[in-house]
Amino acid sequence: MSDSVGWLLEQLGPKGTAVLLVLGSLLLFKMVGKDGRKAAYRAAARAVRTMTSTVIRYVGITLWSARMRLPMRLAYRLQPERWREMTEARKLVGLKRGRIRRTPMGVDVRVTLGGSLTLETLNARVKDLETGLGTRRGAIRIEGADKANKATVRITVRNPLARPVKWPEPTGPVSMTDAASLSMNPFGEWTEIDLQQRILIVGASGSGKSSVQRVLSAPVVLAADGELEVWDLKQGTESQHYEGKAAVRITTADEARQRLDWWMDVELPRRADVMRRRGTSTWPTSPENPDRIVMVDEGAALIRALSEDELARFFTFLEQARAFGVYLWWATQFPKSSNLPTELRSQMSAVIALKMRRASESRVVFEDLAKEGWTPHRLPGKGWLLLLDDDHDEPEETRAVWLDETAFRRIAAPAAPAPAAPAAPPVPTVPPMPSTPPRIPAQAEADFELAPPLSLTKEPEPEPVPADVPVADAVRAALAEAGTAGTTPAQLQLATGRGKSQVYSALQQLQDDGDAVRVGKGRYVLANTEAGEVSA
């Protein structure tokens, strides 16, 4: 039969087939009668109304999707009837959808928790919600509201981390008390960190650890009340990028030992004396008393270089320094028990963990917290991190800000204020001219001698300061010769022939006594000069 029909249609062709269908329809209408034709008309009308309603609804959803900047599939599943179907299918009955608000990265959906649903159970079922709405993994986050039966379902449809996160250069004055932007989460929110704390930075080679160190150091370089000190025992390969930005660069084990002795014997006692004079137990952070960041790059090298007694002295410095406005940042790519002793880990207030190789390294850093999701060896890749401190106690994966070496070199420390011009002397009062010329007594004329003639012979240079002169007096004399232009500690070393630590200690003593004033980063003048009086 089918072969015969096929042969007939082939013989008729397209036009013949169309004519045959029309004739068949007319014959059918004659056969069904009047009632059958009315029923067909009603069915056709219903089909047209349904089709029209569907088109109008589709156009409405399309326009709403465009306004909310959502994919059409997600916009369709967020419709009230589809939402109810999704919650029933995913066994989330009682999750009622409320108002939807657009956000920079997606939408926020207000929901009401009905039935047996709680915020905890909804958070545990967030993967079911992602599957029901058809979003990517990690695109939904649940946030509680003031009322226990209310919550917000945050949905991201635009990934802010698809590209490297650029460093947000500050536009105004920077202070050590300001939190620094460290990374960004998948919802486009900044993760900020307090710089005035001891920070442990760990991550495998190539994980982005050096960039994180530059991101943390940049606001310290820009801050007027902060100074940076870099210890790099890898032959100075990393600290070379901090040239002109770090006040001190340590590149050898001997320099590290000398610097540690200076901190314990000179600088910490001096800072303690400043606090005693002010009657405070908190370091008074200010441009005159700046915080100091001691950043150790690759701490494993320092651990290997110091003896047991020297390590004990270093741990004592670590314990005491924070109270005097000195904060240690410790970076290492070898998070092992031998390189991260308990005396070091227990003192760290914050941990920045980038991508690691093995689970054992995660356990060394986070110990028992590794069971609660603090597993940096499972991070997606380079630049991703976990931050643990007082403000961040949940393991949230974020992508670190990227600051390359070239951009970091362009960062300039705040310029020293220019010395103020000295005030103009008062205009003298000219007495009236006498009517008769004054008469000089004869004896005065006899005693009067002409001034010595001007000599063009170069005056002999001053003799170097004797070694038995106290360092503070030698530095004071060198400052007096510099005048209002001021001088730097390096120039003072040449002028006095004294060592770096001696010059710095003498400068601090003169500042504490009010005899010297710092007029900018690295320049000092005597307090009795015009520039010093203005700057003070």
Question: What this model shows, in words?
Answer:
It is a single chain. Strands 5, 6, 7, 8, 9, 10, 11, 12, 13, 14 and 15 form an eleven-stranded mixed β-sheet that branches. The protein has a four-stranded antiparallel β-sheet with strand order 1-2-4-3. It is elongated and about 130 Å long. It contains 17 helices and 17 strands. The N and C termini lie far apart (111 Å). It folds into four domains: 30-68; 77-156, Gyrase A, domain 2 (2-Layer Sandwich), CATH 3.30.1360; 181-409, Rossmann fold; 466-535, Arc Repressor Mutant, subunit A, CATH 1.10.10.10. Helix 7 packs parallel to helix 9 (308-321), helix 7 (253-278) packs parallel to helix 16 and helix 14 crosses helix 16. It is of the alpha/beta class and 536 residues long.
Task: Show the helix and strand layout.
Elements: H1 2-68, H2 72-77, H3 80-89, E1 95-103, E2 106-113, H4 119-124, H5 126-133, E3 140-144, E4 150-156, E5 165-166, E6 180-184, E7 190-193, E8 199-202, H6 209-222, E9 226-232, E10 248-250, H7 253-278, E11 291-297, H8 299-305, H9 308-321, E12 326-332, H10 342-345, E13 350-354, H11 359-366, E14 384-388, E15 398-402, H12 405-409, H13 442-447, H14 471-482, H15 489-496, H16 500-512, E16 516-520, E17 523-526, H17 530-535
Parallel strand pairs: 5-15, 8-12, 8-13, 9-10, 9-11, 11-12
Antiparallel strand pairs: 1-2, 2-4, 3-4, 6-7, 6-15, 13-14, 14-15, 16-17
Helix pairs in contact: 7-9, 7-16, 14-16, 15-16
